[in-house]
Amino acid sequence: MTGMNIRIYNAKVLTMNSSTALIDGEVWVEGNRISYVGPGTEADKMPVWDREMDAAGNLLMPGFKNAHTHSAMTFLRSYADDLPLLEWLHQQVFPMEAKLQAVDVYWLSKLAIMEYLTSGITANFDMYLYSDMIARASVDCGFRTVIVSGLNDFSFSLEEIEVDYLRLNRFHELISYQLGFHAEYTTSEELLKGVAALAHKYQAPIFTHNSETKAEVEQCIGRYGKTPTAYLDSLGMFAYGGGGYHCVHMTDEDLDIFKKHDLAVVTNPGSNVKLASGMARISDMMAKGITVAIGTDGPASNNCLDMFREMFLVTGLAKLREEDAAAVAADKVLEMAVCGGARAMGLTDCDCIARGKLADLILIDLNQPNMQPLNNVVKNLVYSGSKQNVKMTMVNGQILYEDGQFHIGVEAKEVYQNANRIIGRMK
Amino acid sequence: MTGMNIRIYNAKVLTMNSSTALIDGEVWVEGNRISYVGPGTEADKMPVWDREMDAAGNLLMPGFKNAHTHSAMTFLRSYADDLPLLEWLHQQVFPMEAKLQAVDVYWLSKLAIMEYLTSGITANFDMYLYSDMIARASVDCGFRTVIVSGLNDFSFSLEEIEVDYLRLNRFHELISYQLGFHAEYTTSEELLKGVAALAHKYQAPIFTHNSETKAEVEQCIGRYGKTPTAYLDSLGMFAYGGGGYHCVHMTDEDLDIFKKHDLAVVTNPGSNVKLASGMARISDMMAKGITVAIGTDGPASNNCLDMFREMFLVTGLAKLREEDAAAVAADKVLEMAVCGGARAMGLTDCDCIARGKLADLILIDLNQPNMQPLNNVVKNLVYSGSKQNVKMTMVNGQILYEDGQFHIGVEAKEVYQNANRIIGRMK
Q1: What's the gap in Å between the CA of A58 and the closest CA on chain B?
Q2: Is 90 exceeded by the pLDDT of residue B341?
Q3: Per the domain annotation, does B162 fall within a domain?
Q4: pLDDT at position A88, please?
Q5: Cβ contacts (< 8 Å) between B412 and chain A: which residues?
Q6: CB contact under 8 A, B78 and A312
Q7: Which of B22, B66, B77 to probe the A interface (max A CBs under 10 A)?
Q8: With A412 labelled, which of A79, B129, B177, B205 sits at a CA distance of 20 to 30 A?
């Protein structure tokens, strides 16, 4: 399937290339890259097409980047809800995860990938157990994944993540690997120092859960006299950048550290709402010029893997938090969901529609009642968009989802059966 | 089309009839009413079917009730965003509404009805201008609407709403009409006393926007020395029940008044988030035994007409507000979206799947990644459900939406064209 030439014409193109202006025209995909965007009048330069798709006036745009998730936690969706974070983690999640087998992660990741595709998500930043299975599931589906190690006192070792870093970054064009650890509160100082040493050894960014709950921050201050951000910074963790997932309870000093090291905040409003963790300081982060990306978090805590819901919540919670209906405008949210995510994940080749960029594209159905009238397409996407509007999702030049059908090398039913079999075995 | 006999078999049936337990079986619809729910073994009692629908193991349940909206405001979707409520209302909404013509409301209401159908909403509680056009749009689509008068100092008169009350309650089986006024802050005391007199004359419930913003409550206290709820109660407004839309900033005394008169709270979390109005005291309302229903509010403020988003927000904002991830469990939210709405709207004949009830039903696609695995269908609906899961929406025994196609007597394209023409004329 790779190497196809696809012409998508009669589209409204939202390039996200330094502006949210729309172009009426077409996009050409040759192999896995975009070879042209424009009015389509250069017919003499056209290659031979494997497929010409009439976009019928619908919106073509870069795919969303899900910048924080634990994909394979699909097995715990709607299994353990309505609990605070630490209780949920220790009483429900960890005991069930102990029963997970490597191959389970393969099927459970595929289930999440399917949902990403329905939501126009073309890449994920995935922290979970069994990295090889995550990589294999993504490659087999044709999906793009940045794996991040979830090192902690109970899972993985420094040696393992170093081996994975070297190996999985050369595994496949759809896979990359970033160094990370689960969180300050699950990882000993000795291990954290080891992670910081790896950051220096490979001049690599480091990612982790950071300041998700008030209790986590208070406990870290109790242990080390510093917030998680300040403490990790004091270990030299962020000398080569990286970022934090959640970042709900951040001090001004924390934000200054993020700015200083060019760290990305990956906000997870759906999960923060459902676990009652709080509302992140998105307006303040924007004011300081910090990169903000958006993640769904895992399906056990959210429970939905839906970038439309997350986008609405990013601006909605900011408005609530600041008591200001003008906080965090729609175009800024869209930039976070696309460009901010690409930046945080090291996927700067997938961040916009331009010649030479990787073809990670989505087609949004504007001929649905929630997109009408067409007063402002960007606001429609952020304030009233829905999975129902995703007509087509393309990753790396391949159409993986179109008109409700998956093209991921396996029947949807088989994935559902495996997911139910896995949780059934554990109950 | 009315009077068809439809058998829906091979379904998981969520009756919402005093429990959220599932029945594996089928539902029979004869004309506009449910004639049977059960295992389907009584084949000798079956009527002649106009259609037999294989639900393929998907979920059949009562439709959602959108208990507060201004449907025809679709024309302002994504037109004026990111403004506080009063500014938005006075600088953006009112000037544009002045340009509305009666027939515009017909087309704009139809656009909203289409979106309701995509979200599994089978009835709306609609406050807007040109009641006849609202009624006509609903009847022509086959949709169920409870119209509520939006009397204020600038629109309608007491005489008009009394005439409408008597006339529109006899207009068509799909239409009913409740007495109401826009809000305390837009309606003179003289008019309010007139509304209260009508409540007594007809022993009728009264509905209004209530305590949506902090400023509104403070101004009312400044004017009358009482909160809106206490002030309206002092006028005898609620002698025969009714309810309030929004109810974000409520005192304990306000809640006691609601309980005393059996008033319904219609919560509108999407709109309250987007306009930065605040988070309602849902947990406290539940603890007092107050009926809670859910509304999308209008498409100019929300901007989405999506009961799935609202359901997630009802529990999500309660969890955030109480800092308690256990607040407002999923089954309670589902009851609000179905039964609470039916109760508030006087549609107690549409509140569950049982013999003799009106056939307002939806079929939810469980064969989608966001609904898998099937750990808990009710939690799936509330926490990860989406418009994408709505396979079929039936109102009054008629299928109005199925597999992405509308059956409302008009082409979708014609509705979109009219909506764009209307806002285009105003700009």
Answers
A1: 14
A2: yes
A3: no
A4: 80
A5: 367, 369
A6: no
A7: B77
A8: A79
Please check the confidence at residue B43 and state whether its pLDDT lies above 80.
Answer: no
* Three-state DSSP state, B275: coil
Q: Which of residues 232-271 of A touch B (CB under 8 A)?
A: 270
pLDDT (tens digit per residue) in A73-110? 999 999 878 777 778 878 888 899 999 999 999 999 99
**Given the structure tokens 């206290």, which residue do they identify?**
B221
State which residues form the domain around A396. 5-62+357-406
Q: Is A379 on the interface with B (CB under 8 A)?
A: yes
Per-residue model confidence as pLDDT tens digits over B286-308: 999 999 999 999 999 899 999 99
Half-sphere exposure of A209 (CA within 13 A, CB side): 26
Is A93 domain-assigned? no
Asked if A9 and A24 count as a contact pair (C-beta separation under 8 A), the reply is no
Does B84 score more than 80 pLDDT? no
- C-alpha dist (Å) from residue A393 to A36, B34, B51, B160: 18, 40, 35, 52
Question: B252-261 long-range CB contacts below 8 Å, 24 or more apart?
Answer: B252/B284, B253/B227, B253/B229, B254/B211, B254/B227, B254/B229, B254/B230, B255/B281, B255/B284, B255/B285, B255/B288, B255/B290, B256/B288, B257/B229, B257/B230, B257/B233, B258/B229, B258/B285, B258/B288, B258/B290, B259/B288, B259/B289, B259/B290, B261/B233
- What are B241's two structure tokens? 């029940």
pLDDT single digits (tens) A249-300: 999 999 999 999 999 999 999 999 999 999 999 999 999 999 999 999 999 9
Q: Which of B2-6, B142-146, B392-396 has the lowest mean pLDDT?
A: B2-6
Instruction: Look at residue B255 and tell me if it is in a domain.
Output: no
Contacts of A204 (CB under 8 A, 6+ apart): A165, A178, A179, A198, A240
Amino acid A44: pLDDT: 79
What's A363's domain CATH number? 2.30.40.10
Dist. CA B217–CA B178, nearest whole Å: 24
Terminal C-alpha separation, chain A: 39
Note the pLDDT of residue A2. Answer: 56
Q: How many CB atoms lie within 10 A of CB A51?
A: 11
* A window 85-144, beta carbon within 8 A of B: 85, 88, 111-112, 114-115, 118
Residue type, A360: D
In a domain, A385, yes or no: yes
pLDDT band at B18 (very low <50, low <70, confident <90, very high): confident
Q: How many folded domains does chain B comprise?
A: 1
Which one of B22, B73, B375 makes the best mutation probe of the A interface by having the most chain A beta carbons within 10 Å? Answer: B375
User: pLDDT of B105-115, one tens digit each?
Assistant: 999 999 999 99
Give dist(CA B117, CA B48) in Å, integer: 28
> Within an 8 Å CB–CB cutoff, is residue A227 touching chain B?
no
Contact (CB<8Å) A114/B388:
no
